[in-house]
């Protein structure tokens, strides 16, 4: 008889869903909010979120049995506790009692939930960015967190850094072609496939080398703005791709590329450029590694394109369908644009401390070069790397001796050359007080046969002093004493460098520099 009663609980998940939809199931009188995705039902009750996995089997996951859903819940809890231990609380079983009723306390487990602390939807970075509140300090902190997470992961033995990408490209092409002539024109789909395979062929050796160096790890796998929240004021990564270890085991720049692509496609280009440059420093990425990013960005955009197309086919109303079709085509256009790139160029910004070099460099870096703006290389930050500290860590005067300065500029030239060789535009930010430093960087441009532009910033002394006194949390350690010492430098002939009066506001100064750079050519 007991077995017959238990059998009533072993059917489809409707009974479980009904149970989780009732406030009394949680001992609360408030409403239970429900969010449905293609693989989960999420129930929001009180200060908790309860995530039930749908009983589905797809090409890339299998939640078809209670045992498989239990395993998936345990995996989700374990993996997400890597980045959000305070959000992910437990795996909780739903039990069937002898009378056939469901509960959490007594009976035989029939399904499982991942239990999380609940946070406000306004705290998703997707919402934060829409409000225009994704600030530079928040972006830098986010980059630090992602870099620290990636560095904490164990490398996965892999010799097929390029071969595993072929499978993704083939799958993307197949999924896009399913919507050819309905949602997408056929021509751009084929162009994307051809261009992607051609790009992959040129990067094959580098990708395999990165795999051998340990860059392939089991990362987040689904790192975009809707999977990052502010928890207690801290950017927190959650809801990683837990159901398929192979899909989440990638080059860490491919893991990062999802978020970079999401920011860029959302029009948050300053934030995308800031995140990229901060991450590359904090993760201590080799300068030549960024050659792989255009392909990674394109692949991420292509995934979003065919996912949006699939959602459009299932949309309930015409307006929602049209919105998703437009979104899908925007992603497809972006996927092609990330591969197109532009001819790299080298831009150097020099001047004494307090003339606004770094402000100008950050302002123009997102606007010059593609696919994500320019690689920004700053001597103040390279010096901190030389000493193995974070950019904001203050260094004492002995870190600024002649020998240390020569090492910093040697590293700058090395990184500039590597980034240009990887096909990226570079903005180099340093004092460049010595003629030898200015000659060295212009020679790099000559070697790579690319355009070079040097800008020398000047401002009234009192304004320079005021600027350095107002710095908070900056990589520069220069104070007014440094300015006084620099005033005695023998700068010499600036030759091809353009002198810019930086006493105006940042927008006026960056506008003047961009007008020099345009010169009838796309940036």
Summarize the structure.
48% of the residues lie in helices and 15% in strands. The protein has helices at residues 2-7, 14-20, 66-80, 125-130, 136-152, 163-177, 186-212, 245-248, 252-265, 269-282, 293-314, 318-340, 357-364, 379-386, 402-421, 435-448, 461-469, 480-486, 506-518; strands at residues 33-36, 40-45, 48-53, 57-58, 61-62, 88-96, 102-103, 108-117, 216-218, 228-231, 234-237, 249-251, 346-351, 375-378, 426-429, 452-458, 498-501. The strands form five sheets. It has a six-stranded antiparallel beta sheet, with helices on both faces.
Question: How would you characterize the overall build of this protein?
Answer:
By secondary structure, this protein is of the alpha/beta class. It folds into 3 domains: 117 residues, 2-Layer Sandwich (Phosphorylase Kinase, domain 1), CATH 3.30.200; 216 residues, Aminoglycoside phosphotransferase (APH), C-terminal lobe (Aminoglycoside 3'-phosphotransferase, Chain: A, domain 2); 173 residues, P-loop containing nucleotide triphosphate hydrolases (Rossmann fold), CATH 3.40.50. It is built from 19 helices and 17 strands. The strands form 5 sheets. A 6-stranded antiparallel beta sheet has the order 1-2-3-8-6-7, sandwiched between helices. Helix 14 packs across helix 15. The longest helix is centred in the middle third of the chain and has 27 residues. The chain is elongated. The relative contact order is 0.08. The N terminus is likely disordered.
